[in-house]
Every structure is written in structure tokens, then in C-alpha cells.
């Protein structure tokens, strides 16, 4: 099969798997792409692509369904957390993170204090014990919880990525003993990794150790400031085992092997040593990808290099397109969900850009006589060629792009690839000579710190950054169709097709903006933030209100940056008009500490006494974003930050005065008005909100418990009735009393609760009270984010995933 046809089949293999999460855009785009290619590819190639696309969808859906069934079994049997014991084998290369080691263990079965868990079970164990290698057979005792994913409408389906990783449960190892040592090539590679890690920690300067481990071993363990700087500056790939990194390292090693073989005169005279070195290069490429952490980008580049080396070893030539296609196909064959590995996609996209764009874009500069300018422009062109196809993918990961990254790559690229990388790799084998090892470590540290300095300087130039909204499936579909039609159309038509593609993207973006800014409707989104509370409300007048921000009190990523910021981006919300903190508990304010400094805010509501708040010295109209140099850790620091920005802070004395209009709807603070009861707990001082549009209402009660519920019943009586109730205190036994449920009489309730919560939320007694009144319960731990909306006439309910079977399910 010719290279373009093979590449078409490889792309079909990747794209087909996307059908498990976006079947409609995929089907529409595939049909239009096939029509575009009908005259330019043979019938055989087109049918092969279609068949592979269907096969890819089937493999991906089967793998996802199998993983979800096994994960659901673990969730139901394991509960929140449990102490488990059993035997297993380490199947993943150990990774050091924050002073401890992450181990991927395949357990045959586990005996837990909640019962027996049949295997095989893939676990993620954390231990402070060093020295583990793949193949080690271990006896383990661990405190385990089921793997969990946060699933919200509009943020993509996280299940395929979780299924690709395959982790069913994770936790800390209480006891871990090696029963039998691992043997074989994988174990030897891990021994080398362990030795390299130990030598880096011993000989590199402290500030460069995490950088060196990232560069050599693929261990992402940077501190928060460095991580943000590298991501913001566009230099993250210099500290990752990217395709460029692997190609540079392996090609250098193969060139050295060839030079050594040329000195072996008997061999050099009888045969072509280039073929021998290429054969060795195939092994080196695969072994190096494994040694360097085995990321998706590393393996893709290794498979591509392996194809090239194999062809050379056989005396054949292979084009770049064919090698790229083979690397994509190998990845798909080995992992049907490989398309959900963002590092794999970025590597493929960058390589595609270099193959297709680098030559035509660099042509104008190749004849420049002034060598420094020629080098600079060619380096810049290479960076641009690689980044153009990566841009849509990068926008999925970060809210901004920076033009400074282009210059930063030109400056830092040579330092990273031509200085830091060879110095660090040579350091790996220099330990027998302490003086050489120390010198290489010192020089390598200097190169890495120079790259870090460039990253920090570039990241600080915020004026070079610009924000763009994240693309969705329809954006990618329009891009794919436009590229397919323009690539093979006559020159006269290309301009019109490109204009049509731009208009299509504009139409998709307009529809996305409209969906994120509904008017004349009341939309309440109970966000899946794990064990915590966060509710995003779209008011009928078009304003947005955020009630609480969740908090990672039981572990996991920070919901402010990991969930709320992407959700606001997806809805094209750069301003939250009203932010409400119902009460100062970490599972409600934690996400606000990281989110609010990064977004524009209209006003901030909380229960506290306004008399205690110092007057602002900034005009109250200021909504500018002001990211704190120092991370916010308390509500007091958050208040001070908001005052510094001149954002009004409103309290009960003002908020309880009267209902507030929101277009055709209204917003009422019901309690605790006019002030919390003396001696009441923080939970029973929660701000309770009622949102109304026409005859329909939603009631958000924070963590209010029985005492505040009784006060609200006495004060408001029959006006408490609501169609939708966000259950108080995550469904604990101390809230949702029967008199409260009778007064509110909701048609349905939602409860924000985490899969791995250790509090037993929602409590069985609460669920029984709801069941006695035939009130359906929608849980974020089972359904992901829950969305209730009304136009004042009818109500609608949506949730992020299919209904799950379990206690309290609707």
C-alpha cells in the first residue's frame, strides 16, 4: 500500500475510537471526508479505511465497556476505602513523585475487610520504599479505594482515558514485601532507571534534580511554580521525553555505534556497517523509550524510528509518511484507546507538521547569505511547523497560547537538546568515574537551570499571551473536513473551501457561545467536583453565578483548576457575575482559592459580617484578573485578594433585604436571615438560595442541617416549595429531615458526593427518607454532573453519564 493510503488507514484507526464519545460529529465528518477523497484514493484504500474505522470503534467500545464493568464491580464491593491484602506483580516501571514511588501492580485477587475482590486487578500503589522493578512478585497490604473520574457535561468523557490507564483501585501500601525478584529485560531497564534516579539525586544541584529526572526518566515531579512556567511558556516538551528528544538521543547513539563499527576493519570491509548499526538502532530506540518512562509520545517516536531502522537494515528506504503511519498503526494495535493519550497525539501532530510544513515554510530562508539570521529563521520555521498542528490540542489543555513560546523554543531548544540532554545522558554512565560524574552533573544542572530561567522569563510576559476557547468535537470535525477538501481540490477552489471552513468554525463557535450564555432560562449545574460542593447557575438574564468551589479534601486534583476553570472555558465564560461561598469549609471554598485569582468576578457573597471587612481602596467597577504571586490558602487571604481587586463583597445584612430580579426570574437568599442563630455551627450557618423562574424553582441549601432547616420552615413555610433541591450536607444523616422534605416537596434532588468519600455520604437514613416520599436521587458519584433547567414552562434534567445501579440511584 502506498504511503498516503497507509496514512489514511492509520488515521482511520485513530479516529474510529473517538466514536465511543462523539459518534454524531465523527459520523458526519467521516462521510464528508470520504466524499472528498473519492477521486484521489483507490477504492481499496477507501474501503480499507472505512473497515478499519469501524473495527477501531468496535475495539474501543469493547475495551471501554469491559473496563467500566470491572470498575463498577470494584466500586460496589470496595466501597469508599478498605484494607486489602494479597499477592501481585509489578507491571509498570516505578515512578518517583513527591518523595514516594508510584507502582502499577497486577493483583490476582484481594482479601479485603469488606470481602473478597476477584482478579485480575490493576492497582496503583504508593510507597516510600525504593528499589522496585517490573516483574517483582510482592505480598501487599494496602488501604485501597476505587478509581474515580470526575465527569461533567461539556468537558469530554474521562472514561476512555481511565480505561486506557486501566487502574481499578489505588491507595497507600501499608506493607509491601518482595516474594520473588523480577527478571528479564524490563527488570534490567528498571534497575538502570533506579540507579540513574539515585545518581541524579546525589550529584545534581537541588534546584535541577526534578528537571533532570523529567528530562532523562520522564518523571513529571516539578514544583508548582516551575510546572506553571514550563506550561505557560510552551517549553514543556523540553522536559518531556518527546519525539524530538528521543530522535535526537537515539540517532546520536546509533551514529556513535556506526563510528565504532567502522573501526572494526574486518566487519567494515565485508559488509555495510550502516545496516548493522541500523539493526542495533531498532533495539536502542525501543529500549530507550522504555528507559525514558514509556510515555505515549516516546513510544510513538520509537516505533517510527524502529520502522526507519528496520528498512535501512534490510537495505530498503522508507518515507517519513510511511514511517509515521506505521507508528500510528502499531500504537492502535497495542492499545485500542491510544487516541485518548494526549502525549501520543501531540507527538503525531508535531511530526506531521514537520513532514508536511517544514520544507515549504523554510524554503524562503534557505538561500539567505547571513548565516546567523538564516539559522534563526530556520529554527523559528521548524518550531512553527511543529506547533501549527498541535495548536488545537494545546487549547484542550490550557486557556492561553503565547507568542513568546516561539522565541523561547528557538533559545531554549539548543540548550535543552544539544547541551542538557547529552550531558544528562552521559552522566547516566559516568558513575564509575566520580570526577567525571560530578562535572557532568554540574554542567547539566547549569544547562537545565538556563532552560528554566528562559521558561520563567517567557511565562512572565503575559502581554505575549492570548486566550482562545477550547475546541469541541464539531470544531475538529469542521477542521478535518476542510483539510480533506482543500488538500485535493483544484487551486481555484481552495480559497473558497478555506473560506467555507472558516465560516463553519465561526458558526460552531457562535453556537458554543450561545449554549454557554442561555437567556430566558434558569440552568443549575451541580458540578462533579468529587467530595465537595460546587454549583454553576446560569440566570435568566444571562449572568453566571458560582455557588461554592469544591475542594480536594479527600485527595485528587484541585477542582478549581481541574474542573471549574475548564467548565467556564467550555461555556465561554470569562466573567462570573456572582460568586457565593455558602460557608467557610474546605470542601466548599478550596477550589475558589485557585479559581478566583484567574477569572473576572463581579461580586462576592458570603454569610460573614460586612462590618469586619475593611473598605476597598480600588474602584468597585474593577473586575480585572490579578493572579496572586503567593498561592491563596485561607478564606481570609481570598477576601483580601478580592478587596485588592476592588470586587464588592456582600453579606447577609444586604442580601436578606429582598429578592433580587434576574431577568424574568428571581434570586432570594432565604437564610440564615437576618443572621445565623447564636452558637450555630458553620453548617447551620450556610447561605440558602432559592432560584425561581415562573412557577418553577430550585433550592440550594449548602450544608444546612436540621437546625437551620427548622428555622427556614418557621420563617418561610409554604414558600420553600421547589422542583429541584440540592441536598444539604451531601446527604448526611444530620440534614434532609422529614419536615424539611415535606415543606420543600421537591420533584427530584441532587447530591454532590465523591466516589471515595470516607464519610458514608449520602447516608442510608437520608436515602430511606427520600425513598419514603418517592423522591428520585441523582448522585454525582454515579452520574457525574447533574444539570436541571427550566424556561419557566417545562423543566429538563440531564446528567453526564448513563444511570448506574447502586444505592440511591434513580
Key attributes of the depicted protein:
about 15% strand; about 800 residues; 7-stranded mixed β-sheet; disordered C terminus; about 50% helix; single chain; alpha/beta; 27 helices; 8-stranded mixed β-sheet
Mind explaining what this structure looks like?
This protein is of the alpha/beta class and 810 residues long. Helix content is 50%, strand content 17%. The chain has 27 helices and 23 strands. The strands form 4 sheets. It has an 8-stranded mixed beta sheet with strand order 14-13-12-11-10-9-22-23. Helix 8 (243-263) crosses helix 16, helix 13 runs antiparallel to helix 15 and helix 16 (404-428) runs antiparallel to helix 17. It is globular.
Number of helical stretches of at least 4 residues: 27
What overall geometry do the principal axes of the alpha carbons give?
globular
Major β-sheet profile: 8 strands, mixed
Structural class: alpha/beta
Question: Helical proportion?
Answer: 40-55%
Distance between the termini: 53 Å
Strand content: 15-25%
Q: Uncertain segments of ≥5 residues (pLDDT<50)?
A: 610-622, 804-810
Rounded to an integer in angstroms, the radius of gyration calculated over CA atoms is 29 Å
Indicate the mean pLDDT: 88
How many strand elements?
A: 23
The strand order across the widest sheet is 14-13-12-11-10-9-22-23
List the topology elements.
Elements: H1 3-17, H2 23-37, H3 43-78, E1 82-90, E2 95-97, E3 100-112, E4 115-127, E5 137-146, H4 159-165, E6 169-180, H5 185-203, H6 206-217, H7 224-233, H8 243-263, H9 265-270, H10 273-291, H11 296-313, H12 320-334, H13 342-356, H14 358-362, H15 371-397, E7 400-402, H16 404-428, H17 434-460, E8 465-467, H18 473-488, H19 491-516, E9 522-526, E10 535-538, E11 544-547, H20 559-570, E12 575-581, H21 586-595, E13 600-606, H22 635-644, E14 649-650, H23 652-655, E15 660-662, E16 665-671, E17 688-693, E18 696-700, H24 706-716, E19 724-726, H25 738-744, E20 748-751, H26 764-772, E21 777-779, H27 780-783, E22 786-790, E23 795-799
Helix pairs in contact: 1-3, 1-12, 2-18, 3-4, 5-6, 6-17, 7-17, 8-10, 8-11, 8-16, 10-11, 11-12, 11-13, 12-13, 13-15, 15-16, 16-17, 18-19, 20-21
